[in-house]
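Changelog-adjacent note: as of this version, every example in the card shows the full chain rather than a window. The one below runs 133 residues end to end.
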Amino acid sequence: MDKDLIIMCKSATEYIIKNRSISKKKCEELFGSSGIEVFERLKGLGVGKNIGYGDLQVTQEAKRLIDTKYFENLIKQIDRDEYDRYLSNKSKEATIKSTRIAKIALILSILSLTGLPQIFFKWLWLIILQSIY
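Full-length structure tokens:
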């Protein structure tokens, strides 16, 4: 579930406990276009019992979910998952950077084995010395 949806479900559950019932229309007033989804989630969680006319009446499940901090635990879990994804992405970025450095080091090692850098520096040294003398 989405973090914002969980927060809306928590607010709606608190509203049901306080006012004894909630309707689809009231959910739409409180939560806009997400109201119907919140209403259906509440019905699925067992927070409200359908009493007709599209209203949900408060149940013991609503009080239990609030008392056990069900919604807060879901939000904490989502935050932990987001942080884990963030760390995973940072780890992947570090791996990519270290791979680039390793490739450059490999290329430099191969070049140094061929002797080309030594030949180049000898040639450069000779040009500098010949220009001075």
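Structural remarks: The mean pLDDT is 88.
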